[in-house]
Design a protein that fits this description.
- There is one protein chain.
- The protein is of the alpha+beta class.
- Strands 1, 2, 7 and 8 form a four-stranded mixed β-sheet that branches. The chain has a four-stranded antiparallel β-sheet with strand order 4-5-3-6, sandwiched between helices. Strands 9, 10, 17 and 18 form a four-stranded antiparallel β-sheet that branches.
- The longest helix is centred in the last third of the chain and has 20 residues.
- The radius of gyration is 20 Å and the shape is globular.
């Protein structure tokens, strides 16, 4: 398959915009032969989170997506943000691009964030040899962006393979720096407006796919009964304060000049943004009210990567109803799940320079999030 056809594979997948139809098999397409799965996560992320380093962990995960997108020269490819890591798929022709982006991101995460990131690149053939697959769908939360959904069990297997050291990509030399243009985290924590910011992970257990689908659809219907469908971002957008949080992290994504100068430049940039958003200004082709509406619409608070992954803002009774539903399904052997309750969510952002409305916003819980839900999930599976 040549590069033009590879690019056409993902862009040619029909987009769906009703998340309640997530489990429909017709939306998914298996990856072409020769494709590779890239995966990354932070070693001992729960320890980092216990040390209040939520923002650094999320920044590391989003950096994988930013580095790959820039290295791919903004060509479309499927990816998913996992809180303390990320996964993606690329064609064989892009192997060297993916290897370099993963290796440089791991080096940057170590040097800039003092975290250890493991990275791997896994051929689809290795996954299919295990009787699994990776199929991809495209969900559009808004007219501006779409996010990849993955199913088939292959992504889960790839993550486990990476964690046992298989298919590892060696870290680049110290001082290596991926292109992280567009990566930022200048919004403040988003406090729950309804009582609970709930991080949810639900994975299939057993062979009955129809029973798993029924559980997911019942849970999604339950979530939809919450105001705004449980969306964790308020209609007016995430809080904006100055000095902005995350200035040091954003400064470290930049490459020119000493760090002290980059901090000053980013501090000035976030002050300008604060003024724009505080007074809902329009400057040139930029409109603060329009951008903030797009932030709300474009956020990835719900996704699917061999399991349902959500961060929702809901009432305590809704959280209890969700847990009751999932507990019953787990008792029946249909699913395994992990939940984590907290009072706030975090947002990490990535903007494409050529697409004003095409900015991505990755959501995680602010007090443990997906990483803590994954700990609960792992305990349930033991």
């Amino acid at each position: 398959m040549n590069r033009d056809n590879d690019a056409a594979f993902y862009s040619g997948i029909p987009v769906f915009d009703d998340f309640g139809r997530l489990m429909e098999p017709s939306f998914y397409r298996p990856l072409p032969d020769g494709w590779l799965i890239g995966t990354a996560d932070i070693v001992r992320s729960t320890e980092a989170i216990a040390n209040q380093r939520y923002k650094a962990v999320n920044m590391a995960g989003a950096a994988v997506i930013a580095a790959m997108t820039n290295a791919m020269e903004l060509r479309d490819f499927p990816f998913v943000f996992g809180g303390d890591g990320a996964s993606f798929a690329v064609a064989a022709a892009d192997r060297k691009i993916a290897e370099r982006a993963l290796a440089e991101t791991a080096a940057w995460v170590k040097e800039a964030l003092d975290l250890t990131m493991r990275v791997a690149l896994i051929p689809i053939e290795a996954i299919r040899a295990e009787g699994l697959d990776v199929s991809v769908a495209r969900y559009a939360p808004s007219p501006n962006v779409s996010y990849a959904m993955f199913e088939g069990g292959g992504l889960k297997w790839a993550d486990a393979a990476m964690k046992r050291g298989a298919f590892a990509v060696p870290q680049a030399p110290r001082g290596s720096h991926p292109d992280l243009t567009g990566l930022s985290c200048h919004f403040s924590e988003i406090m729950s407006a309804r009582g609970v910011m709930l991080s949810i992970l639900v994975v299939p257990h057993g062979e009955d796919k129809s029973a798993f689908r029924a559980v997911i659809e019942r849970m999604l219907a339950l979530v939809e009964m919450s105001p705004e469908g449980g969306r964790p971002i308020p209609p007016q957008g995430p809080p904006r304060r100055w000095p902005a949080p995350g200035v040091d992290y954003v400064a470290r994504t930049r490459q020119r000049g000493p760090l002290w100068w980059r901090r000053i430049a980013v501090t000035g940039w976030t002050l300008w943004l604060y003024v724009l958003f505080r007074f809902n200004l329009r400057v040139g082709g930029f409109s603060a009210p329009v951008y903030m509406r797009e932030v709300v619409e474009n956020s990835d608070f719900r996704k699917y990567d061999d399991g349902l992954r959500m961060v929702i803002d809901c009432s305590p009774p809704t959280a209890r109803a969700i847990e009751t539903l999932l507990t019953r399904a787990a008792d029946m052997g249909t699913i395994r799940y992990g939940l984590h309750r907290q009072d706030a969510a975090l947002m990490t952002c990535f903007s494409l320079p050529q697409a004003q409305a095409g900015h991505f916003h990755f959501i995680d819980g602010a007090r443990g999030g997906y990483a803590s839900a994954a700990v609960a999930l792992k305990a349930a599976m033991e």
